[in-house]
Fold this sequence. Notes:
43% of the residues lie in helices and 14% in strands. By secondary structure, the chain is of the alpha/beta class.
Amino acid sequence: xxxxxxxAPPALVRRAEQQDTKAIQAxxxxxxxxxxxxxAGLASRGARVITRADNIYVWDSEGAKILDAMSGLWCVNAxxxxxxxxxxxxxxxxTLPFYNSFxxxxxxxxxxxxxxxxxxxxxxxxxxxxxxxxxxSGSESNDTNVRMVRRYWDLLGQPQRKVIISRHxxxxxxxxxxxxxxxxxxxxxxxxLPIPNITHIEQPHFWDNALPGESRxxxxxxxxxxxxxxxxxxxxxxxxxxxxxxxxxxxxxIIPPETYWPEIQRIVDxxxxxxxxxxxxxxxGRLGHxxxxxxxxxxxxxxxxxxxxxxxxxxxxxVMVGDRVAQVLIEQGGEFNHGYTYSGHPVACAVALANLELxxxxxxxxxxxxxxxxxxxxxxxxxxxxxxxxxxxxxGFVAGLVLVKNKTTRQMFDADLxxxxxxxxxxxxxxxIMRAVGDRMIIAxxxxxxxxQIDEMMDLILRCLDATLDDLRADGQLG
Length: 479
Ligand code: PXG
């Protein structure tokens, strides 16, 4: 992608967009019930209207150009404006826009994509992923996981193995099962969640949960130990699976210590429980690998994917089904009474295939691993010198920093101050999309981002951190 093709929108388009903003906002609040949104608040402010995008930038209806350091919502891995993906959708729509994959039927793009994904999934410790179950989102895929895990243990004559252990502050989606698997207290508070037989252990969040003076390595082992304690408390014979994100995304880019995953692997092996790696954010190059379990060297039985598989151009999700589960379901299972109208949707699969080809052609995964990923890590580490930044770390192309009152004592700001939101406000007005999760600021840039664009992004981040610092000083919060 050539950044020099990034031109400002033509004046005419800009004028038309400007005229429309208020009208669109009025219709938006009158009719569009947004996800995860306080609607009364949104109606009083008016939504920002995003009208177009190219490469790593989006434009709003007022003509402002914004650097999208969040890849839409962790998904536009190949960047915006990729004609190949639009062409793939168009051609597939003209050939076969839809057919179902129930009733002994299949379609070519779904077969090709399943084959491609099976070839991309690394074999770790002799475990293979030969089968793929398709859905249209990460949430649906995690519902599929719950159904599949329960079916697996039923078929093995252990129906009492029902409990799936997850972690606090995890995000696994917003359906009943997805929100229950997730560990977001705000979501559990609405709608009587979690559903039965899902429990949560504490997350491996070094900044929040490490003891004073504890090393990262010791903390990682101790945090993994919480899984063993939970298994023993429940009774190992009742535990079906453990589900976790390789790196927690929505929870605030929480990168576990290197000692965490090996110890988790030892524990799931010892008690024979299934391991589900939810890679909705972390797969497809985000951490510099096609699948993130390879980076950490663990061996999941099921892998959830969505988002980056199509670079977000069209909805598609699924579950990579490892041989351990697939063999039981296929050889002993008969019919698995589960599926979606859009499982293996030909257009979504054709776009995914084009996206994976494009990513291979441009070596997007390799460059995150060996080139722009390390460069982002180096630049991000430099932020630790900023007076407001307690810690700043990256893993491939996700990164997070924590805003603190006192770096030495690790004292956080009073939550009521909303320091993260103050910083996010400055990002908003400076043309940068960066997320705030409490007082953690996080990014997940498109994988096509160049070194020069990383520099451009870092300048913006520093400007926003400085502006936040000025606000806090003016408000007497820093002395
Ligand atoms: N698992 C993980 C790890 C996710 O990050 C899902 C499952 C659910 O995917 P769907 O496609 O059903 O949304 C996700 C989604 C945020 C945010 O605030 C993150 C997600 C979705 C919405 C908001 O960072 N991740």
